[in-house]
Specification:
Layout: E1 4-9, H1 20-28, E2 31-35, H2 36-39, E3 49-53, H3 58-70, E4 74-79, H4 88-98, E5 107-111, H5 116-124, E6 125-126, E7 132-136, H6 144-157, E8 160-164, H7 174-183, E9 191-196, E10 204-209, E11 222-226, E12 232-236, E13 239-244
Parallel strand pairs: 1-4, 1-5, 2-3, 2-4, 6-13, 7-8
Antiparallel strand pairs: 8-11, 9-10, 9-11, 12-13
Bound molecules: S-adenosylmethionine.
S-adenosylmethionine binds near residues 82, 85, 166, 198 and 222.
């Protein structure tokens, strides 16, 4: 029997965010791998085994799943949001490239999911209506100097910027440093969106400005969108504001 490995995006929150393709792929798998809290989101099915692992064990998790698939199982690896955005799909590819040549013959499919950035943007309005980029603030896998250079270049180039992994216990100061870097290029009035736990029961949304962004609490369940000079806030009575970036830009910014 030939095995296969599907890397499946669960979206940012509960079942509502699963695509039909993800539902089907989860249903037909014999074995599920993933970070424990993500696996807990998948309803149990008789005959399907589960292999939860810790957050920081991506490489070992990917290798175990690949070995299992090589034995003939249909393995599903679950990932929060989209599996290709700072997540397990790249980890699986890294292990295939470094692993035994036979792993390259395995049937591998990546099933996309709604990434946190898109769910957060939808909650706020349309902040990604013009050019944008996404950066991870985590320096676990790349040097902080590289992150600083990219933050600086992105703000200078006028992108709306989505920040993943903004803060952790081990990285308490990087976010305020990022806001300080942005302030060199952008006015304090630029809108900043903090979207926490989007799609989950405890979700929250805070819209503030770059000048006061440092006062808003963020953690590893927060996705931050920093607007550009063009990003606007439409105030509405009795309703949350609409934050959007117009699609057109008529002149080259100074
Ligand atoms: C390792 S990255 C994984 C991203 C994921 N693959 C995705 O596509 O959303 C984890 C970061 O994604 C963001 N994130 C993931 N789920 C989120 C959610 N439900 N609400 C807000 N941010 C979320 C946070 O910035 C978090 O620190």
């Amino acid at each position: 029997m030939s095995g296969r490995l599907s890397v499946i995006g669960l979206g940012p929150g509960d079942q509502r965010y699963l695509t039909q393709e993800a539902v089907n792929a989860l249903h037909i798998a014999d074995v599920l791998y993933g970070y424990g809290p993500y696996l807990d989101r998948v309803p149990a099915r008789d005959g399907q085994s589960r292999h939860p692992s810790d957050n920081r064990e991506e490489g070992e998790r990917a290798r175990s799943a690949l070995r299992h698939a090589m034995e003939g199982a249909h393995v599903a690896m679950v990932s929060g949001g989209d599996p290709g955005v700072f997540a397990m799909a790249a980890s699986v590819c890294e292990e295939i490239e470094a692993g035994p040549p036979a792993w390259r013959n395995l049937d591998v499919s990546i099933v996309p999911g709604i990434t946190a950035m898109l769910a957060a943007a939808a909650r706020a309005g349309a902040p990604l209506g013009h050019d944008f980029c996404a950066l991870s603030l985590s320096d676990n896998l790349k040097p902080w100097e590289t992150i600083e250079r990219r933050l600086d270049a992105a703000a200078d180039a006028g992108f709306v910027i989505a920040l993943y992994n903004p803060v952790s216990k081990a990285r308490p100061w990087q976010l305020s440093h990022a806001f300080a870097l942005f302030s060199r290029h952008l006015p304090g009035t630029v809108p900043v969106i903090f979207s926490r736990a989007v799609g989950r029961p405890d979700e929250s949304l805070t819209v503030t400005t770059l000048a006061t962004a440092g006062e808003v609490a963020a953690d590893m369940a927060t996705l931050i969108i920093v607007g550009s000079r063009e990003t606007r806030v439409i105030a509405r009575q009795g309703k949350s504001p609409l934050v959007y970036t117009p699609r057109a830009m008529s002149k080259v910014p100074a």
